[in-house]
Predict the structure.
Amino acid sequence: MTKPALRPYSRYSREAVQLLGRSIRRARIEKKLTVAELATRAGLSRGLMQRIEQGDPGCGIGPVFETAAIVGIRLFEADQAGLSAMTAANDAALTLLPRAVRPARPEIDDDF
């Protein structure tokens, strides 16, 4: 059986995921939680928790964000009100944009 091809990630993405994973690990240790305890609180397997802390880019964003929130890492705003305001502002901007982006039509050269 062959291994599936690894998805290529940019250096920035790889380093950002590693930073977040290490930050989660540090916060967990500072809170004196074991990997198993944090996994239980987040509703995740111990293996997934270890992958998150190792900075595996294949982990789902939901479990990573939930784990970060549990250990006190805020990824956007420091409080719920600020996050809600940012979400509302983003939603307002999205209503002004088209629902879908279509590729530009090639210009027809009808100059004979």
